[in-house]
């Protein structure tokens, strides 16, 4: 049976950095308040770049690190909730064009912060079925374009960036062991961008009521996220008969340091096992996990053969986890 492997990881963050002290000048907040409740100190903000630009820069590096050419890529999938365009063309198509890749399958998915794990599961299925050989997956977000910068409860949380990986057939023992993805649409209104879709089309009413921006009921999301994330990772570890001490790196979605620590403690993981970048990049939704993986990789903390546990929770609600032996060189 064919196995799928993550053979590279890469990321890109815009140059401009927005600090908590910068936000103190914009809304009624403080560095102390943001840090204590979220763990975030800075986030990167795209100025003259759009989501496809961010994704392209991460994708180009991911292909290079995989030792492949653009002609080897036969599918491109992008996870995003902040696409270049509302309907079409897809951000994946835009990234393909920027890369100079044509005549391949390219499409977007929308699974919010769980998007990258959804991508891994889709790519794994395609490779293992023999449908595709080298799939480029990208989580890319320009969340600054859908954040209300007058809303102090949400604007402090989000940042921009992109992460990318190549999923190919495994040539050794380093492969994607298992993935699990799920959802609960009944709680969708707790984390939502209510405007500019078919339910609330673009109008003066939408703009006047800020419906085009992210709306979140933070306390409810916080509680649900901790329980859901913990249960999900415990299930995937138990299913695969892997104990937490065997995990090389736990790479959770980077939304809130308190959530990360709560799940880490429930799993009895050490600080050295846990990758934390929320302080540097904030919540970058679908880009969060690949950006954290890339941070570990570029700091020599992610090596070929390392056993990874990924875990994410996002709007929808969606969630997912993955167990991976990293195949990158």
Q: Indicate the proportion of strand residues.
A: 15-25%
- By CATH, the topology of the largest domain is Peroxisomal Thiolase, Chain A, domain 1
Q: Major sheet, described briefly? A: 5 strands, mixed
Mean pLDDT, to the nearest integer, reads 95
Shape: globular
Unreliably modeled segments = none
Strand-and-helix sequence, N→C? EEHHEHEHEHEEEEHEHEHHHEE
Lateral strand order in the biggest sheet:
1-7-6-4-5
CATH superfamily of the largest domain: Thiolase/Chalcone synthase
Topology, number of strands:
13
Radius of gyration: 19 Å
- N→C terminal distance: 23 Å
Q: Helical amount among residues, as a percent range?
A: 25-40%
Give me the CATH architecture of the largest domain, please: 3-Layer(aba) Sandwich
InterPro entries: ACP_syn_III_C (IPR013747), ACP_syn_III_N (IPR013751), FabH (IPR004655), Thiolase-like (IPR016039)
Region (ACP-binding): 254-258
Subcellular location: Cytoplasm
Catalytic activity: malonyl-[ACP] + acetyl-CoA + H(+) = 3-oxobutanoyl-[ACP] + CO2 + CoA
Task: Give an overview in words.
By secondary structure, this protein is α/β, with parallel strands linked by helices. It has two domains: 169 residues, Peroxisomal Thiolase, Chain A, domain 1; 130 residues, Thiolase/Chalcone synthase (Peroxisomal Thiolase, Chain A, domain 1, 3-Layer(aba) Sandwich), CATH 3.40.47.10. The protein is built from ten helices and 13 strands. A five-stranded mixed sheet has the order 1-7-6-4-5, with helices on both faces. It has a four-stranded mixed sheet with strand order 8-13-12-11, sandwiched between helices. β4, α4 and β5 form a beta-alpha-beta unit. α3 crosses α4 and α7 packs parallel to α8. The chain starts with a strand and ends with a strand. The model has no long low-confidence stretch (mean pLDDT 95).
